[in-house]
Design a protein that fits this description.
Blueprint (H helix, E strand, L loop, with lengths): L1 E5 L2 E6 L2 E4 L40 E5 L9 E4 L4 E3 L10
Antiparallel strand pairs: 1-2, 2-3, 4-5, 5-6
Length: 95
C-alpha cells in the first residue's frame, strides 16, 4: 500500500484513489473534502495560485510547502531552479 501525507494528514492509496488513513474518506481531487492544515489549522483551496498560509508569498519562489507539520514534506522551489527540502517553520507569518 502506498502512503503519503496531505497537509499533514496521513493518506493511503487504495482501490485507485487517495484516502485519509484515519477514516478512509477520499482526499480532495478524489471526491472528498479539504481538511484544515494539521499544523496551523487553516483551510485553503487547491489550485493555481494557492499560497501556503504558513509561508505566505516568498520573493524569488515559484512554489513552496511548509510540510504541514511533517518536516520531510516541506520544500521551497526558487525561480532559478534551486530546491530546498526538509525544513521546519519556526515562526509563522503574521497577518
Amino acid at each position: 500500500m502506498t502512503r503519503s501525507y496531505f497537509r499533514g494528514h496521513k493518506a493511503i492509496f487504495k482501490n485507485g484513489k487517495w484516502l485519509y488513513e484515519d477514516n478512509l474518506k477520499p482526499l480532495p481531487g478524489w471526491g472528498g473534502d479539504i481538511r484544515p492544515c494539521k499544523k496551523c489549522g487553516k483551510v485553503f483551496p487547491l489550485g493555481k495560485g494557492e499560497v501556503d498560509p504558513c509561508l505566505g508569498v516568498l520573493p524569488g519562489v515559484d512554489n513552496a510547502c511548509c510540510g504541514h507539520g511533517i518536516k520531510s514534506e516541506s520544500y521551497i522551489r526558487f525561480t532559478n531552479g534551486v530546491i530546498i527540502r526538509g525544513f521546519e517553520i519556526e515562526k509563522e507569518i503574521e497577518k
